Amino acid sequence: RSVENVLGEIRALAGRYRVKTINFQDDTFTLDRDWAIQFSHAYGQEFEFPFWINTRVERINDEELVAALAHGGCRGVRIGIESGNESLRADILKRHMSNADIRSTFALAHKYGLDIYTCNMLGIPGETAAMIEETVALNRELEPADLQFSVFFPYPMTELHDVCVENGYIVDGQSLHSYYERKSVLHLPTLSTVELERGYDHFQQLKNELRMKR
Questions:
Q1: How far is it, in rounded angstroms, from Cα 102 to Cα 100?
Q2: 192-214: per-residue pLDDT in tens?
């Protein structure tokens, strides 16, 4: 969609509702760097209410882009860290970014006044209790504006679903109402149910800790 097309939709919304914030759910808003910069310039010239976006570390660790977003009215970004363990993140989740890259992205966002909301997972195939603690520790160090955490779910037609099937990780008859529960549909040899629940509770404790700091 063109910049003007998206701006036109926002104008229509603003004409109909009392808009306080625009929340873009595009998975990677900054995938097209030039488009994102152009949009930010145009948005900032026309609208006063802020906006939030989703993106990836690899697609926002760029000072010109971050500056354009901030000056255009972006209030914050949601970024998937998923795991604080670099090997698990790269080998299993295929997210090739280092913890140093994540720290650099946070520093850049904070320089321009952007909040960051992190997305995290636990119960990932191959994960251990110590790896969950690495994710908790990294978030504690970064102090995001807020965070979410969910238990990994093997969606069919994904590579990790196939891995779970091939290794017999999926528990027959197990179902979930939400992946924000304290349990998993997997039986992992590297992570017990008790360790998963303990890790989940540590995430909740961190979430409360960050709220108290704010």
A1: 5
A2: 999 999 999 999 999 999 999 98
